[in-house]
């Protein structure tokens, strides 16, 4: 299920969505957290992008594992395999952070927009949402960088 679509690795197709949605969701979530006046407008975009980030992170990690198995089966080894393993570890962390961000963002959207909710609890939830937003952006950037390194470092440096 997470291996290929029309002969292309699912991972390659899905990672672009995660790389686009996670930072966008994080940016909107930070705006939602720090600007109460924007909450009504940002409620549904934050919720939908958070869900897309969580689902995308999960599918990217699962499809990455399928691609890793395919590459190992095809005889990829050496330094490239080491880079793939580093990327896979970062991808596992990114999956967890994407899912946590989605949950935190949904709780924040449901909690902070309710009448009568605010005060210290509201500030705490807003702070947690900002931290989760920074974390998801960092996790996706690190995993993406390690993946790009695994794919392109030897091609760009001219070694095989």
Automatic annotation (TrEMBL):
Domain DUF2231: 7-156
The keyword Glycosyltransferase is annotated on this UniProt entry: no
Highest taxon, organism lineage: Bacteria
Keyword terms of this UniProt record: Membrane, Transmembrane, Transmembrane helix
Pfam families the UniProt entry points to: DUF2231
InterPro entries the record matches: DUF2231_TM (IPR019251)
Annotated TM spans: 12-34, 41-61, 93-113, 120-143
Protein known as: DUF2231 domain-containing protein
